[in-house]
Each structure stands twice: as C-alpha cells, then as structure tokens.
Amino acid sequence: MSGPWFIETLARNGDVLQRSRVDTLPIRLGRGYDNEFIIDDDYVAASHARIEMDAAGRLVLRDQGSRNGIIHRGKRL
User: Fold this and answer.
1) pLDDT (tens digit, 9 = 90+) per residue, 22-66?
2) Nearest alpha-carbon partner for 41 in 53, 29, 50
3) CB-hemisphere CA count at 13 Å for 29?
4) Which residues does 2 contact at the CB level (< 8 Å), separation at least 6?
5) What does pTM read for this prediction?
6) DSSP-derived secondary structure for the chain
7) Contact partners, residue 55, CB within 8 Å, separation at least 6
8) Sign of the C-alpha dihedral computed for residues 15, 21, 27 and 29 taken in this order
9) pLDDT-based confidence at 5, cuts 50/70/90?
10) Could you tell me which of 77, 73, 16 has the C-alpha nearest to residue 49?
C-alpha cells in the first residue's frame, strides 16, 4: 500500500473540519511542531502517536507512550 494518505479532523457530528495530505510513512501525530500532523489540543501529547505499516501491509496506529493513550470509538486501546 502506498500513499498519499489523508488524515481528517472531524467535528462531533462527523463534519470534516480539516483534511491533510501526507505522502510518506510513518506519519507522526501530536501537539509538537515536528509532527507531520499537528493536533492543537491540550490533551494530546507533543509526540502522541504514529501511523505506520505493519508486516502484513496494513496501516496501524501506535501510541508513543502518551499519558491519555488512544481512544477509538469509545474504547481505550
């Protein structure tokens, strides 16, 4: 699987607030300015998570040791 990939920030009602194109992996997410996708939220760590490809070629989201972790569809992962 190759890029580009698009990351969307959604409102609670599902509307797209922001869409960003990223061409290479891994994609680093967090509050810090050195990330490919910057999240302006006090509950997000400076280096919060990264999206990378696993051995089977699937995209996976990995927490980078943040205090609040990752919550997906109401479940903490």
Assistant:
1) 999 999 999 999 999 999 888 889 999 999 999 999 999 999 988
2) 29
3) 23
4) none
5) 0.81
6) ----EEEEEE-TTS-EEEEEEE-SS-EEEESSTTSSEE---TTS-TT-EEEEE-TTS-EEEEE-S-SS--EETTEE-
7) none
8) negative
9) very high
10) 77
Tokens describing residue 3: 């890029």
Output the DSSP codes for 5-16: EEEEEE-TTS-E
Structure token pair of residue 8? 């969307």
Sign of CA dihedral 10, 70, 3, 40: positive
